[in-house]
Amino acid sequence: MLSIIISNLFFPILFRVETDGIFRIMPYFPFFIILILPLMLGISLGIITAKSSKKDKVIVGTFVGLPLIVFLIDTFTFQISTLEAAMFLSAAIIYIMLINERGKKIAVTQTELRIASNIQNAVLPHTFPPFPEHDEFELYAIMDPAREVGGDFYDFFMTDEHHLVTLIADVSDKGVPAALFMMSAKIMINYRARQGGTPAEILADVNAHIARDNKTYMFVTVWIGILDLTTGVLACTNAGHEYPAIRGSDGIFRIFRDKHSLIVGTLSNAKYKDYELILNPGDKIFVYTDGVTDANNPAGENYGLKRLEEALNRTADETPEVILKNIRADIDAFVSGAKQFDDITMLCLEYKLKTR
User: Fold this and answer.
1) Do residues 226 and 307 both lie within one domain?
2) Which of 80, 130, 229, 297 is 20 to 30 A from 42 in CA distance terms?
3) 183 and 245 fall within a common domain
4) Are 85 and 74 in contact (CB under 8 A)?
5) pLDDT in tens, 259-310
6) Torsion of CA 249, 255, 257, 260, to 10 degrees
7) What residues form DSSP beta bridges with 246?
8) For 273, how many CA atoms within 13 A lie in the half-sphere containing its CB?
9) Number of domains in the chain
10) Within the chain, what is the greatest distance between any pair of CA atoms?
């Protein structure tokens, strides 16, 4: 089409100019009008519906829309409009090239995000039961990121035959930067915890290391507990994280409003405080990130602590795995299809009788 328009300048195809200056329409001109109008309409619709930024659409639309208007006016007034048609088609070609280039960049980005998601997923423990040789406890954990990658994480590991470390954390940012920060924080906490010490000492050292050169200004909230499997004593520290829920001897889950220490990653000399919980056989502790309580339904209501307690107590006697899956299902029912805007991460630990 564009080649026909250009060639018409040298070889009359659509019209010619007589020596008296009068335009004469050639036999092919009506066919050209019938063909070019649907083509322009189709390209215009393609521009409107294409997956590109509003800025790109405005820029290209300006180059396309104005010639299109002039083309229509000239066509129905003077029946000659090859210049505007050429401009229209040229702009359309530019736009197609722009969309093609953007598509390549999007494809590369999506590939990189998939790789990052796989790497992040690989650093979280997913084997349950994690320590089959230990029947003193049972635990289960899940992490559902709101994007391809997230800033939440959990971890659990044995530091010796009698001590189990569990932790859950939430990085302040979202997306790839938060995922990188998350993996760095997780590795540091894991490494420092294996060297021994209380939860407060572990977080103090990790915080000093992160805050000393934290150019990203991100931070992470952390709940960490070290369970002595022989006594049921759970030493804990809460660094600005959500309140845990505890199921005691009466069989009821209740939110435990523990004292918070400072978040990790801000002040290098921050101090952290330990507290202890005594777990009896059958007791459970449930920890989570704010993506659980902040989940919104279409009416803008938060899931909240009250709904969380009620959901926990509907399955309080079940295994940690069943409890977490039921909480996740309850959240899904509450949000009623609303878009997840924050990572949802949960961990449940049950202390059991030692039978060995």
Assistant:
1) yes
2) 80
3) yes
4) no
5) 999 999 999 999 999 999 999 999 999 999 999 999 999 998 999 999 999 9
6) 110
7) 254, 285
8) 7
9) 2
10) 111
96 located within any domain = yes
Residues contacting residue 346 through CB under 8 Å, at least 6 positions apart = 141, 142, 168, 286, 287, 288, 289, 292, 324, 327, 328
In terms of Cα–Cα distance, which of 258, 267, 140 is closest to 203? 267
DSSP string computed for 269-322: T-----EEEEPPTT-EEEEE-HHHHT-B-TTS-B-HHHHHHHHHHHTTTS-HHH
Question: Helix, strand, coil % (nearest 5) of the chain?
Answer: 45, 20, 35
Same domain, 158 and 17: no
Which burial class, exposed, middle or buried, applies to 101 when counting CB atoms under 10 A from its CB (0-12, 13-18, 19+)? exposed
| Percentage of the residues of the chain whose pLDDT score is greater than 90 | 53
Domain residue limits at 287: 124-351
Residues 9 and 131 grouped into a single domain? no
The number of residues in the chain equals 356
My answer on whether 227 and 266 are in the same domain is: yes
The dihedral sign for the CA sequence 17, 23, 28, 32 = positive
Domain assignment present for 142: yes
* Average pLDDT score over residue span 1-25: 54
How far is 114 from 120, CA to CA, in rounded Å?
Answer: 10
Assign 30 to helix, strand or coil.
Answer: helix
pLDDT of residue 24: 56
Out of 74, 96, 116, a domain closes at: 116
Residues 101 and 158 in one domain: no
Average pLDDT (198-217) is 93
CA distances (Å), 283 to each of 25, 247, 251, 317, 337, in order?
91, 5, 8, 10, 34
Q: Which of 67, 99, 116 is the last residue of a domain?
A: 116
Same domain (yes/no): 77, 94: yes
- The structure tokens 């989940």 sit at 295
pLDDT tens per residue, range 35-52? 666 666 666 666 666 666
